[in-house]
């Protein structure tokens, strides 16, 4: 199986991000998670439950969105968006985790917030989200990230990483799992390698055989 490194974006501090000029846009997203003592099929530890969402464009991402710094602080802007998609949660500066500069033609600094909940609180968020304004429109539903790998070395997290993610969401997920000590870096690398190999094989099946 081919090797894969955990992709990384350029990280900057919150202070540095706030000093960026008006040519930069700010996106704020939230990773909500909870320790999960459950076992899949009675034998595979779940370890943690992490919430992401299926977006209107068919891409996976974290709850949140762009914040207009002319009118909102990062947290006020984030909470405004979360109120539309989750409906029952407010984050603070204490939940701030990281800021990363994105690559590409658009100058965006991506801020990530993370809060650990109890499993009961996480479930309450899932229920509330179904009744939020954006449910079925901009947000097609919340999903839990499977943080385990099955015996075939593909099922679970590697398969999840084979999906399409919006912008920095995949890098932010991997970064958060690493710095919050939710998954060892070697396990992240193994999952990425398995996902990359799966995508490569799927592409080879679609392409005509070379003559």
TrEMBL record:
GO CC annotation terms, alphabetical: nucleus
Keywords assigned: Nucleus, RNA-binding
Q: Does the keyword RNA-binding apply?
A: yes
Report the principal subcellular site.
Answer: nucleus
Q: Which domain of life is it from?
A: Eukaryota
GO molecular function annotations of the record: RNA binding
The record's subcellular location field reads: Nucleus
Membership in a protein family: Belongs to the Nudix hydrolase family. TIRR subfamily.
The UniProt entry, under PANTHER family, shows: NUDIX T16 FAMILY MEMBER (PTHR31699), TUDOR-INTERACTING REPAIR REGULATOR PROTEIN (PTHR31699:SF6)
Q: How does it assemble?
A: Homodimer. Interacts with TP53BP1 (via the Tudor-like domain); interaction is abolished following DNA damage and TP53BP1 phosphorylation by ATM. Interacts (via the cytoplasmic part) with SDC4. Interacts with TGFB1I1 and PXN.
What this protein is reported to do is described as: Key regulator of TP53BP1 required to stabilize TP53BP1 and regulate its recruitment to chromatin. In absence of DNA damage, interacts with the tandem Tudor-like domain of TP53BP1, masking the region that binds histone H4 dimethylated at 'Lys-20' (H4K20me2), thereby preventing TP53BP1 recruitment to chromatin and maintaining TP53BP1 localization to the nucleus.
Protein name as annotated: Tudor-interacting repair regulator protein
Q: Which organism is it from?
A: Homo sapiens (Human)
